[in-house]
Design a protein that fits this description.
The chain is mainly α. The chain is 54% helix and 11% strand. The protein has eleven helices and three strands; from the N terminus they run H-H-H-H-H-H-H-H-H-H-E-E-E-H. The protein has a three-stranded antiparallel β-sheet with strand order 1-2-3, with helices on one face. The chain is elongated and about 75 Å long.
């Protein structure tokens, strides 16, 4: 690992246990070819996936005042293979991968799945070597700068916007109808439909009637072609 110091500079973290970062960069093709004692980065990838999820979830929860469904979608977009591939490219992670000859010769160093997996493995290596705070510091460097600017301090935006759209035609009338409740009392979900002149144009499910109405209005706006995020 002659270039380990360069990678440490790029991720702004110095490992106390260099074996961890060595394993994080070891693809299964390399580990099998070299019969590496520590194995490949697959176990670290498994752990890194969980660390990544909790850090991103915590960040979104604390910085975005939006309903659960939107938080889930946002998290999914940030931890998917496509995003992790981009994050890995930003630090040139492919340059440091340890690959078997077959993967090396077939473009494995640039393969999105390999880079995404290695990115998660590096997260796990940092977590094991330096704890959750250092892992979080590394992960949060890659969060898009505009996420917090999209924060909506007032949750009634969707209903307000929908009402403004409908008011352009005075004869139109919007009505929210509670059509059902799901789940036990301690974790109940309310289901609401929003109707335009008695025609259903959106449906939402939330922890409260208010949340469900907002999500129903959001769906209606999306169906009308309006950007809601």
């Amino acid at each position: 690992m002659e270039n380990i110091e360069e990678l440490e500079k790029r991720i702004n973290y110095t490992f106390k246990n260099k074996d961890l970062i060595h394993q994080a960069l070891s693809h299964s093709s390399y580990a099998n070819e070299k019969r590496q004692h520590g194995g490949s980065n697959e176990r670290l990838e498994f752990l890194g996936d969980s660390v990544l999820s909790i850090v991103v979830s915590d960040f979104l929860y604390k910085n975005l005042n939006v309903p659960e469904g939107e938080l889930t979608k946002m998290r999914a977009s940030l931890v998917c293979e496509k995003s992790l591939h981009i994050f890995a490219q930003k630090i040139g992670l492919g340059e440091f991968l340890l690959l078997g000859k077959g993967e090396e010769n077939t473009g494995g160093r640039e393969r999105p799945s390999i880079l995404a997996d290695a990115f998660e493995a590096v997260i796990a290596a940092i977590y094991l070597d330096g704890g959750i705070e250092n892992a979080a510091k590394h992960i949060l460097r890659f969060m898009p700068n505009d996420i917090v600017r999209k924060k909506r301090p007032v949750f009634s935006d969707f209903k307000t916007v929908l009402q403004e759209v409908v008011q352009k035609n005075p004869e139109e009338k919007v009505e929210y109808v509670l059509i059902g409740e799901e789940g036990p009392d301690h974790n109940k979900r309310f289901v609401v439909e929003v109707c335009l002149n008695s025609q259903v144009i959106g449906k939402g499910k939330g922890r409260s009637k208010k949340d469900a109405e907002q999500l129903a209005a959001k769906e209606a706006l999306e169906l009308m072609g309006y950007e809601t995020l």
